[in-house]
Every structure is written in structure tokens, then in C-alpha cells.
Design a protein that fits this description.
- This protein is mainly α.
- Helix 5 runs antiparallel to helix 6, helix 5 runs parallel beside helix 9 and helix 7 crosses helix 14.
- The radius of gyration is 26 Å and the shape is globular.
Amino acid sequence: MSEIDQQSRWNMPITETSNQKKPSAIDVIPKHESVRSRLGLKQTPPVDQTHHEQEHQQLLWSRVRLVLREPLAEFMGTFIMVLFGDGSVAQVLLSVGEASAPGKNGYGNYQSISWGWGIGVMLGVYVAGDSGAYLNPAITFANCLYRKLPWRRFPIYFLAQGAGVVYANYISAIDDIEGVGLRTVPPSPTATAGIFCTYPQPFLPRANMFFSEFIASTILMFVIFALKDDSNLGAGNLFPLTLFFLIFGLGACFGWETGYALNLARDFGPRVMSYAVGYGHEVWSAGGYYFSVGRSVLRPLSLSVKGGILTFLGIDTHGRTFLRYERKT
């Protein structure tokens, strides 16, 4: 090599490598945007900007978590909601007459259940974030219908399960009340199935069962739309707290007759779980088949639609069409 060539070689600029961008989780999974799009999610997940710069984000589970950020958050939020809600029912029901309690008659009363579900929903929303689902498939359905939430999100927000943890925690107390291996549903005097899902009062005719749920479900959807409407005052960052008061009020005012199910995620999943652990086919047939496709699966969806109708007919000021779609001319 000549002296000139050596001089040119040593005078070449040195390329800086220390500041080169490391491949992020998104770089490692180039198809993540199409996957999220097929699920009805935004192409860019709602994460902190520095999230992609961490080396551990290239691990498999980190990439899966990135793609399924909102569904996983919704699942965990619903899990927290059911834990607090079913846990409050379990403590009240299983401790009735307990003389060691401060009031000498158990650890809690009916209002304790309203507190438990209200707190569970509030904390669940904080965990799940503002996904538009709010831990309730009926609300997801209404938001898909009225607020342009993609329909493809509806199936992935449908179910979550926390009742199994409550059952495992209170299994000894359930055995003490009902007997080892015995599991009954209302109106049995020792029934504990009501811990996990709702059952109507035995005197209620079917028309009253429907009307009770009609009032509570319509109020739920109507008020949630109002709370999220910033042009109508709105709740802003206080939305989870106001949702706590809404759920507490519904339980305190409309919860006795049918248990204010309102929510497939808090009623259907735990009902399946209670059937699986030994409560038998009565979980479906109780109350004259109170739980049926027509009354407990489609009902919350249809009633949430009615709550949306009230919002759009009465207080909505966004100039939107009644449904999310406009007819093209």
C-alpha cells in the first residue's frame, strides 16, 4: 500500500456507532400494525415514548404485550372489578351472624356490596385505561354503535374471569355454610351461588325482572355518555371516580330485585365458573330460566342501546347522526 493510500485511509471520518438507534420492539415485529388493525386497535399502541428503547422490549412476551396492549389492560381491569365485586358479596353473605364482627352480626351489609362493586369498577377503569370498553361488553357494544369504536374490538373485550380467585379464597367458608361438597343456588336458605352471579327475587314475574334491568341498564349507558361528553360539562379525569358513584347508586337504588347484572363480563363468566365448580344446572334454570340468551345475554346489549338513544335524543350536541354511519349520497 502506497504512502498516499495509507494517508487517505487514516484521514477517513470515523463513523459514530454509539448513537445509532437500537432496534425497538416495533422494528422487530414489522407486522404488528396489521395485527392490531385486524383486531380493530390503533396501529400505534398507547405506550410511553421510551418504551421501545428498552432492550428487554425485544423479548417475545414484550412484543406480544405491545401488540395486545388494550385487550390485556381490559382483561386485567375486568379481573380487578370482579375480584372486588364478588369479594364484597362473599364477605357479606358468608359472615352473616358472625358474632366476632364489630356489630356482632357479620362483616358488612347490603351497602357494603354497593361499595365493593363501585370501588371495583373505579379501580378496574384505572387499570384498563380509557379504552372505550369500560369493563362491560354492553358499553362496548353501544360505543361501537354510536361512538365509532371499531366492531372488531367487541369480541376481544367480551369476557374476563376473576370469580375463580374469589371462589378459591372463600372455599372453606362456603363449605362451612353449605357443607363440604354441597353447592346450592337461591332460593335455598344456604345458597352461596349469588356470590358469583345474579339471581332474581323468587316473587318477581318475568316482566318485572326485565323492567328492573331495563331501568338500571338504561341509566348506566345514558349517564356514561353524559360523563364522557366534554361539551356537556363531562367528568374529564374524574371519570373513574364518577363511575364509582354511578355504580354505587345503581346498586343502592335498583340492585335488590334482580342483582343489577348490567354486565356480561361480571355475570356470564362467573356463572360458567360456578356451574363448573359444582353448583349444577340450576345456575341456568333458577328464576324460571332468568338467565337465558334472550334475557341475560342480549338484554344488556339492547338496553345499553336504549341508553344511547336517550343521550342522542336529549343532550347530545356534537351534530352527529343518530347512528355512527351516515348514508352516502
